[in-house]
Amino acid sequence: MSVLVILATGAEEMETVIPTDVLRRAQLNVTVAGLSGADPVVCSRNVKLVPDKSLDDAVKEGPYDAVVLPGGGDGAKNLAASEKVKKILQEQEAGGRIIAAICAGPTALLSHGIAKGKKVTSHPGVKDKMEGSGQYTYSEDRVVRDGQLITSRGPGTAFEFALALVEALKGKETVDKIVPPMLVKL
């Protein structure tokens, strides 16, 4: 099974690295794709992350079983402004495949008209935007799954978010196998 994590300038580091790491521990084929190319990406706390490849190259290997949108204010704005991301999300939704977004990442769903009518959560800082749009049912749960949509709140929920993705893709048995060695307290 394959997962595409879209890395944009200004992305939140933990919301990018933790899901990538946890998904790889679950033996999923994860591609971290740079929205602007394959060069290192400066994230929200000035940590530089190196994508596996550019988004342009990564889409040639799709479709993916899941697409992940990390948060981070500027990262989410970059995802929301991208026509490439819009096309990927539209195809993902039309194909009935998983879309996952954390923190401010769900604002890209709103900008691109994705998952209308679904139950979502987000970082409290973008709650009013998500709730006020009238497009979603808003929840303050730490992780929300509504069909093939998984959303979460922020850096502190990144492990729960990642494990929800693992469960959606590979089942609870896999979650139960990978949690103990990571010493994650749920």
Beta strands, count: 11
What does the main sheet amount to? Answer: 7 strands, mixed
Q: Could you name the ranges where pLDDT drops below 50 across 5 or more consecutive residues?
A: none
Elements, N to C (H/E): EHEEEEHEHHEHEHEEEHH
Q: How large is the count of helical segments?
A: 8
Biggest sheet strand order reads 5-2-1-6-7-11-10
Mean pLDDT, nearest integer? Answer: 98
Taken from the alpha-carbon principal axes, the silhouette is: globular
> How widely separated are the two ends?
25 Å
Structural class: alpha/beta
Helix content: 40-55%
Percent strand equals 15-25%
Over all CA atoms, what is the radius of gyration? Answer: 15 Å
Explain what this protein looks like in three dimensions.
This protein is an alpha/beta fold. The chain contains eight helices and eleven strands. It has helices at residues 13-25, 55-59, 73-81, 83-94, 106-111, 127-132, 158-170, 172-182, and strands at 2-7, 29-34, 41-42, 48-49, 53-54, 66-69, 98-102, 119-120, 137-138, 143-146, 149-152. The chain has a seven-stranded mixed β-sheet, with helices on both faces. The chain has a two-stranded antiparallel ribbon with strand order 3-4. Strands 8-9 form a two-stranded parallel ribbon. A hairpin with a 5-residue loop joins strand 3 (41-42) and strand 4. Helix 1 (13-25) packs parallel to helix 7 and helix 7 (158-170) runs antiparallel to helix 8 (172-182). The longest helix has 13 residues, at 13-25. It is globular and about 40 Å long. The two termini are 25 Å apart. The model has no long low-confidence stretch (mean pLDDT 98).
